[in-house]
Amino acid sequence: MDWSEVVELIRRSISRSLNVEKDKIVLIEPTREEYGDISIHLYKLSRDIGIRQDRAREIITSSAERLDIVDKVEEEKYFINLHLNRELVSKHIITEILVRRDKYGHSDIGKGELVIVEHTSTNPNAPIHIGNLRNSCIGDAFSRILKALGFRVRRHFYVDDCGLQMSITGVGYDLLKKMRVHPHEEFDVWLGSIYAIVNLFVEISDIKKNLYQYLQEIPKNKYEITEEEYRYIKSRLRDEDPELKSLLRELSECYSIQEDLKNRFPEVYKGILRALENISDLKQTVEKWNYAYETKSDTHVVSTIREIVDKCMKDILDTLKMYDIEFDSLDYESDLVWSGLVEKVIKDLGRTPYLSRQNGALVLKLSEFNKSIEIPDLVLVRSDGTTIYTTRDIAYTIWKFECIGAKRVYNVIGTEQNLPQRQIKLALKILGKPYAENLVHLGYELVHLKNFKMSSRRARYITAREVYREAIGRVLERLARSRRTYSEHEKQRIAKAVGVGAIKFALLKTSRLKPILFELDRALNLEENSGPFIQYSYARATGILRKAESVDINPYFVDYSKLTTDEEWRLIKLMSKFPSTVINSYRDLRPSLIAEYLLSLAKMFTTFYEKVPVLSVADEGTRKARLALVEAYRVVVSNGLHMLGIKAPEVM
Fold it and tell me: What pLDDT is attached to residue 397?
């Protein structure tokens, strides 16, 4: 029995006695403990069901008193307050927890239905950073929650290896490879610097082309801004013209980025700049690579991009394994395109009245399909024949439903992708796909850092590896200062569990639709709202049971009448709400609900630990009952942490 079953039992009894539907019986928890455990607003209920208040009071009181789980019924102003039979309810709750153990909080509401959770899906041209990691943690936790609720879950990583970003990276990598310039750091970090530098040179070439038209001069070089040139342009051109003002602002920004990248990645910067002496139009080269890769028409381009993608993906997946995050499928965007599925989707949309050609591009007229909402039309194919990522995502979504057989698909993608996700859903409706509404966008907000702004344009980010190593290092330092003696194996195991748990919990505890400020110091704090705080409470509970190892805790042979304190009762009631919390986290698409719940539970256990003696209590029956309560707490916390992808260490 859990709390929802307690409430349901009372609701069903009262509804039958009143001869009304269960939904009419609204049960609430009083704000003050002296008002009992469950309350009914008598005045509101009698009004809603059309019965005299005194008659409703009589029926409700009689119905509740007949239930063995109700100890006492009282009336306070407009409310009828029910005090539960603590002994009986405690027996039901603790017994269920200790019998079901690692299945407590699980259910079968999914009935084996196949669902796909696509998450992370970061571009394979840079390391996964702390912002990406929020995506990974949300996706992994939600997958675990779905699995606990009886769904058959597949975790997919969409490898975005098509598009201009990958072609920019591929061109730069190819230039350096020919010059025998190799990475001196981790490959994904090195690759991120290549993308930032080549992308910068493309931007600079465009800006200089426009600025030198104003100057009516020819630049000495296309891709770099020298200090002398920067000062010359700023002195020659005034910013009265709005367009020129914008160009000069972009020039200043690019110059700042250039100097930053030149200082941080001198070998890559100089190598690419030197190689570009033989390339007259970098932007055109990138566009040719983009077309060649999407159409699979150049074996050198295909092999080069696949080489960097595979190497970068290895680093990304290895990093995620540090956080115990894995996938069931890696879905390459290029494979989808080369299979002909994207082309088929475009042809199918072409048979509808909503596809038109504008200035050489194919445009899906979403505004005409649904005039009740404001949504811009979608360019499916550029004038050069290449598709945009949203077009490929439409095909990918169809593949997930029709080829994999998913009944529901959850896409964990930042809220900045709200519009493309809506456009995909509308495109599915235009195609008459019945599963369009089963495509769910799990949006999330950004991760901010104190005194540091991440930027892929500047190759500035705090990588997930850096955060992992720093967290592990700090935990190891604490363990070294501890009075307790640990083996080296124990130290490493605890450091990983606590370090990873701290990071993941910090990224999960806030509602996904709110931005978060990530601070490692706070995440690792044992005394604040952190993952380690919850883990420490679990280790404390384990320590109590370890010291009482000779006591056999059989839930069927425990005297629950010994659990008489308010601290015990509060803890038991809150533990009974774990199953409904899991279900609500699924229905509300909020893994943070479980994190919030675990924090509340750990705080409540800490109060119990400080105020209620367990091992030192003289009465053996009381000692045994409290040990059963402590063991039940361990079960609930362990199950909750597991759903968040966090380990529960027995020693800290």
Answer: 98
